[in-house]
Amino acid sequence: MKIIVLNGSPKGERSVTMQYIDFIRKKFPQHELKILNIAQRGKEIENRKDVFQEVIEEINKADGVLWAFPLYVFLIPSQYKRFIELITERSAAVAFKGKPAAILTTSIHFYDHTAHNYVHGICDDLDMNFYASYSAEMYDLLKEREREKIYNFSRGFFEAIDRRAPGIKVYPSLNVETTEYIPSSSLDAIDTQGKKILIVTDGEEHHLNLNRMVNRVAEHFTGMAEVINLHNIDIKGGCLGCIRCGYDNTCVYSGKDGFIEFYNSKIKTADILVFAGTIRDRYLSSLWKTFFDRGFFNTHIPSLMGKQIAFLISGPLGQLPNLRQIIEAYTEWQQANLVGIITDEEPDSKKLDDLLRELAIRSVEYASSQYIRPATFLGVGGRKIFRDEIWGNLRFPFAADYRFYKNTGFYDFPQKDYSNRIHNLIFEWILKIPVLRKKIYNEMMVEKMVEPFQKLLNKL
Questions:
Q1: What are the Cα distances from residue 222, in Å, to 151, 191, 366?
Q2: Which residue range forms the structural domain that includes residue 453?
């Protein structure tokens, strides 16, 4: 059978992800796996309709489709995202309808699930027959046990195609109807307390609700907020995954476009950031994805630490919990504070006015008090993954990360707490004595857990 591999790596066939495809080829020589370098040829596919049509015709003739890509900032690379947008813009969804589909990714398991959820949702929107997804750690292919798993996943996909196995749709179609937002004429300005406020949007002329929300928030800041449209930034292309930024955060695009200067001089110097975008398919636009991907010249260093971040979104965010989690996780990983997310799903314009005003008020209040909400699992888990990877496998290519993590205390390994290790060792031996073990668990445990807190409260 013929399987089309939609390669989402900007590095083409010299990517880690494609080495997994070569492994599958060697194990199943009876099947043809044809690689289409979607991300690497992104500009060509977008600018030349004949090239785009060639891709669609290959998909139309295939027995199955394998979405294969590396993870870039919680999702797929921006070039891959643009291709998905083109499918809708050019009415090419019919080529995907009913096709068996699967997902193969490589990553360090940092929010791989959000990327898988997104592409699975796209498969459901295209009415594909989804089989399963496989998330490989970058170096899994070098391990015999993991190679066996990859083999079984691939075999299962081919056999499912042979028997015309049905797929279960997980993500329902989106209802994208919204009510027009009409701001009221009255407006109460707020004191910005000298904070630097930047609103970044990808709004186009026909994005009425988004543009009106942006203008409304900007007006609350009494002319103290700068509004920048991403369409006006000179961005030559998406992240290439070349890791040239790994040593000292110098990007391959340095001096070639305006993005890095924009990020350093505008994004990093703001106290309050408002990101505004319209939902495209199940995410924001590919332009916003380019923004997040290109921000990786900071590598795994949280470049927005301590900032207040708010989101204005036009579209059905309430139907996209995966996107909401990405927004929350991105903010927490950056060690910034998510002030809130306001969408135009609210049909009452007066209430939306009030929500936008409250967003502006809170952003200034939080910035003035330097309030950063404690991280949940989204932030803590992500930070620990980066901590361990930069300490270990990724220390060599990401030297800038290693220096930053070492100098700022990111290497907070619990094994280094020697007093706690001694404490645990002592109690490990005490608990071997039955009478003491019974007394500790039956009489002392609960009281001792709250004892340090009670001491503190008594002092207060």
A1: 61, 8, 18
A2: 417-459
